[in-house]
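Q: Could you predict the 3D structure of Ribokinase?
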Amino acid sequence: DVIVVGSANLDTTLRVCRVPAPGETLLASGSSVTPGGKGANQAVAAAAAGGKVHFIGALGRDSAGETMRESLRSHGVDISGTHLLQAPTGTATVIVDDSGENLIVVNPGANALLSIEHVDEVLAEIEAPVVLCQLEVPLETVRAAAEQNPGRTFVLNPAPMMSADRLASVLLLTDILVPNQSELAQLTGREVPTTLDEVTDCVNGLEYRGAVVVTLGALGAAVFQTVDGAATHVPAPIVNTVDTSGAGDVFCGVLAYGLSQGSDLVTATRRAVALAAESTTFHGAQMSSRNPV
Ligand code: ADP
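A: Sure. Here are the predicted structure tokens for Ribokinase:
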């Protein structure tokens, strides 16, 4: 089993010919409403990979919350640990133009209210070897999830990134850190590393004691068993990429699932790289259940 503690949002995407200027009104050429939020996306990816997944998050008692619950359930995710609150379900409104330029406004809503007490209570009742978190819910709640972990592997995807100082107490409790290149840059205060050597330099400079898996987009991922060790490069297959949004979430979900099955870090990373690459060949942030895995 895998426990995912994190965010759930209902995303609305509006397609426009160009991103509007402040004060301007534009007509959209189309729109779509899709389930999102890094937590929900990662939970769905882990479930689609074959895992039994428990999602711990917070939703509003509104239609968006109902849609999110339906979506998670339809992907086989256990939502009995999801808290229903008197707050709006989190939303993201995305405005995207023909060239791919975008504008995004996130309203965290219920996600911002996911409490330490709720997470403690649910975690105490679920047996699972792996807990996966991101940073779209309060940091204190993430820390609580990391603390409630006797014998569990705590995997942290530090997204969206915050300063390494604020994250320090959570990093102390993290077993496997999974940043992308820009998150790694922010963690180390350096420029975005592009080559494997630069990535290795950054990781070697981290003030952290666990393992690190850095996602490298089309280059795949680099696995570091320890921060002062060498990288094992896991290349991505060449695929016909149409949309990379959510690829990092698929990666994290599949990685956590592999670890929960007892795979070693490199083996779990291989599968995560393969399925994340596959997810870039269709549109949408959540892994489709139609996608054979
Ligand atoms: P994020 O979505 O967080 O920015 P990355 O861009 O590093 O994360 O992508 C995560 C994973 O998705 C990569 O490790 C890789 O497996 C896969 N991926 C992303 N972009 C591509 C691509 N263009 N071709 C193949 N695989 C990709």
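Q: Anything worth pointing out?
A: The first helix runs from residue 38 to 48.
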